[in-house]
Amino acid sequence: MRTDVQVVAVVGAGSIGCSWAGLALAHGMAVRLADPAGIPRDRAADTVAAHLADLHAPAEAAARLTLHSDAAEAAGGADLVIEAGPERLAFKRDLFAALDAATAPDVLLASSSSGFGPSSFQDACTHPERVLVAHPFNPPHLIPLVEVVGGASTSPEAIAAAMSVLHGWGRCPIRVNAELPGHVVNRLQAALWREAYDLVGRGAISVADLDLAVANGPGLRWALLGPIATQHLSGGPGGMAHVLEHLGPPMVEWWNDLREPELTPELTAQLVSGVQEELAAGDDVIRARRDEALRELLALKSRLGLDSAGGDRE
To answer: Which of 56, 78, 115, 198 has the greatest count of CB atoms below 10 A from its CB?
Structure first.
């Protein structure tokens, strides 16, 4: 599989696709961006340009972007194809069949799917061994995490090539060893959201205070080490063994008390109104502040050896 990537085709010019495009351009690639759904070219180009500014990319990077209306045309001649289209299985099957026909057999075909495993669409291809999922965390030009998931027909060489390319782009790829709905990270998020929605729905806490609690408490530690390493450090000299011995039984009681809320219209309205009140400054303003903080946090983690490569884990 190709790892010397010079030309990247990105199919889908939504938020994920444009973010991927900006990342690849910033790392010296030529990018062929296609959007079968017909997103206006000017809008896509402006979005990619904004991402390049986020990354402090050289001015000439934007000149390596070409825009296409046909996915197969964009994929022809590419060394890597990243699909970032709608989460519709029938659409992905048709698209990957077309991408498979348009590219050389040693070109990786990577889907950004947030929930589908590659086995559900790679059998539409003549060369399914080079099809995998490379699920980024939004926005992928800033957040390093990428979940790499192989399917029933994905070759070990394809997995290794994807990991190599992503490392070269400064990403933090993790190998997910099972095909699960939502992969791993979205399942972790869904577990937290389930309890958060229930706590809001039962009146235990407001939307704004719940977000404050996570962002100013566990979220700060999770951003540095993750939940299990953080739990280990909280155990003092005894580490994880001490935590599980003394806090494990109460934690099981908390698990047993968790409920399964229904996403009723009433709860939906409560969540929507709550977050609108919380973000009264406006989504664009908050998003810009968040992205600036992300850049500074990533730089700090790198300086302290707690970066996307895994920190102090020799």
So the answer is: 78
